[in-house]
Amino acid sequence: MADTLSVRALNRATLARQLLLARERVPVAEAVGRLFGMQAQEPKPPFVGLWTRLDGFQASDLHTALHDRSLVRATMMRATLHLMTASDYLAFRTPMQPMLDGAMRVLGDRAEGLDLDQVVPAARALLDEKPRTFNEVRALLQERFPDVNDRALGYAVRMCVPLVMVPTQDRWAFPRSAEFASAGGWLGDAPAAGTAADDLALRYLAAYGPASAADAQAWSGMSAVGEALERLRTDLAVFADDKGRELFDLPDAPRPGEGVPAPARFLPEFDSLVLAHADRRRVIADAHRPSLTTKNLRVRAVFLHDGFARGIWETEYKRRVATLRLRPFEPLSPAALDELTAEGEALLRFLEPAAKETVVAVAED
What we know:
alpha+beta; GMP Synthetase, Chain A, domain 3; 5-stranded mixed sheet; 3-stranded mixed sheet; 13 helices; Winged helix DNA-binding domain-containing protein; DNA binding; DNA-binding; AlkZ-like
């Protein structure tokens, strides 16, 4: 019989791979590669996520990696924006295409008249000419395809054309309306054609394992990744969780003991750690999971104590006072509050270096 891994054991194993048991001093691009991407629906969260994970991280480190093109922000897993290494983007963008094609179903009736065989080459030509914002791309495509919904045209380009976002000198590296460039033009190479789902599955386990086939599918949005784990079974370590579900892992991946300390940490909005599994109990209890997402599908920032999500957090900056408010799911012990306060004050100094005062407090409402 397969060995059983408790929820706490899974927590520690995943935190070890996500650089959350101890900050590490590694280059930014190397860290993003080890994490196998960071969800980046908005530009700011990856800065916070890297500060949380890396010793000595500075915002300029991520700026540099984006501008030297070793990192890119682009549509990948679950048809959402991710921060990826350029090499991973080029290697794994093509296997994502069937999932991205499937995402087109959300258009419904708005896709009436949309012919991808015509729209995709036209969009490629526009973006090969020069980087453009999506407002520009939609307007130019609308001139050529006047009978097609402009939002459908834009969404088709996002899903079906390999693109990267062009960084700027904005504080969080991207403006509200960023330009997009063709991946081939920006990186000097086109996405590889032959990368298999097996490779994708192995990289997922390295960053998020041990995990089930359902977990791999939830993270990627692709059934092929879950199926790959079954093909790879003989090369993998196989475990069971507390409910008897089968978990796969790399044989030599870190699986620290349940008693390994886990420091207080603040995760940003949309952090991949809280989105990478179908069963998320290794990070957040089922009872608290509804608090994770807002009605408009924003994924809230959470704080970790003893390795698990214990509440959500938010910041405010007024009159040069930087405030971080904790909204715990359950009352915090004095020791937990002390740890979170120290970590929160350090985070505020990173976020608001000009602040005269930093305050960490438990929200009263």
